[in-house]
Amino acid sequence: MTHRALWRRLFGRRARVGWLHLVVGGALLMPFYLLAMVVVGPLAGDGSPFASVTTQLLSFAATLPLIAAFGMLAPARPLSVAAIRSLGLLVDVRANGGPAAVRPRGDGLAEGPARTRAARLRASGWFTLHLALGGIISGATLALTPFAGLLLVLPFVPALRDSPYGVPELAGRQWLLALMPGVGILSMLALAAVSAACAELLARSAPVLLGPTPADRVAAAERRAADLAVRNRLARELHDSVGHALSAVTLQAGAARRVLDSGRASDVEFVREALTAIEETTRRTVGELDAVLGVLRRGEDEAAGIAGPSLETLDDLLARSGVQVALSGDGDLAKVPDQVSREAYRIVQEGLSNALRHAGAAPVTLRLSVLDEELEIVMENPLPPEAPAVRPGGGRGLRGVAERSILLGGRTEAGPHHGKWRVVARLPLTGGRLPAARGPGDENAHREDHRDGNGR
What we know:
Layout: H1 3-11, H2 13-43, H3 53-71, H4 76-87, E1 91-92, E2 101-102, H5 117-153, H6 158-162, H7 174-209, H8 214-262, H9 268-298, H10 314-319, E3 325-330, H11 338-359, E4 364-370, E5 374-382, H12 397-407, E6 411-417, E7 420-428, H13 440-449
Parallel strand pairs: 3-4
Antiparallel strand pairs: 1-2, 4-5, 5-7, 6-7
């Protein structure tokens, strides 16, 4: 090891940050130490604990169980992790000997309080180690720093040798006096070496003792899954509402343009109705878009509170869909639970969007049947005379319909049926039952059921 590398190890940024972290540990140790002295001092028969080194050592030993007990509390782990991250104790030294680089946020440390017994034991071990080493280094720093300073100037200030802080026995021994500055320097180097070693021990043990336990990893995976579910739901809401609106607006605008191109004055009323429908559709869609984006701005935790449209507002959707819809049904839609009703609305909306996109203004038949245990949705529209152009990457509409059904424990079917395109969705009225496990073959068949060659 070169002199420069040794100097960096003892006095570089990593060493300085490590020493500061240890001093913080020594400061946190003091309340426990003072509490232990109050008990140990009278038991040891020493009225003044600071006058006896033995009493101080006993008090320090009695402090460790108190620290370990405090470390078992849940907040001890986030307190330790916050101290490490704020001071930047964890650094990665590059293999090529380059400068140290502060670790990013993903430093292998656990997030949040320790919940399990194993996590608390590990956090308590690191907290005790931090405060114990911090107390030793802090005490050594307070004692050795003025002592080393005294040794450095002792040969040059005779008055210090006769003072209460001096060493009168050295008065006639000049060779010993000449060695005192070297002893002072060596003592500070020894303190720096011990401090760097303690800081390195803390840095290496932190990911082991403060890292996530298996329970923490499971909890993190559940949070990521919940976050992904929220994102998927918001994506479906945006796709269904905006996609349907754009399809309807495109169809109505195209029809109005063709009427204007024909030059027939008698069709002005049709153009007015088309423009009115475009205005109302875009206004309604902007409201839905603002609601979803508002959830993103406020936080994903509020996504569960999105009410959204339901079957109660289905008549308005059909009236402004841009196609002629023949609605029929069996049973009382009022019996459909709110969650199922909202998803059913989105499924119908996506079906209408597909019909507009692929079949133009062809009429659509819609049947809603409330059975004993499920809601059945059947939508049919004529197949287009020519296969529409495939969109890059395929469509996501039927995939979203399938996802909505699966989340409720239902199932969907989509494909040509007697010369028409047919979409069937069956949603359990209980809502929220998980689907049965699928084998590899079933999963492939599921994908084929909900995506055709036209990119629907």
